Amino acid sequence: MRVTRPMLALTGAVVALALTGCGSGGEGQGDGEGKVPATATGSLERLAAEVKCKPNVQTDADEIRQALCGNGDGKFVLATFATDRGQREWLNGAKDYGGYYLVGRKWVAVGQERTVTRLRSTLGGTLEEGSEHMNPGGSHNRGDHGGDGPHG
């Protein structure tokens, strides 16, 4: 089956919404924010093993491999990419739908903010946040909670 970019972005976006749309799960901001290890590399299975999850592969194509995962930190999507460009294109499309992303070289973990922050303590990587209009209460919006802002 030929997987197109719009299909990949839509798949990622649907999964991101499913995972991040249900409650924030608590504070947990300090968890995993201490020492950040060197960014992990490897196959989908190797990365999943690092965070102690058995991947349930949903997409297995030349350009992307994507799986649902869960461990003590929560549920998340783990995706690996054939190219850096493919990864960035996928991220650009998926981030329009909100969510929290832990980004490594040719891989991404997507889930609730608390979950990806905790995964970072094992996998390293960079935290990125999706579109502010799809992340109500996300860090983009934290300045508006006082009630004096335009959205209060």
UniProtKB/TrEMBL annotation:
Region (Disordered): 122-152
Span of the signal peptide: 1-18
Key words of the record: Signal
UniProt KW Signal keyword: yes
Biased composition (Basic and acidic residues): 141-152
Name used for this protein in its record: Lipoprotein
Species whose genome carries this gene: Streptomyces fimbriatus
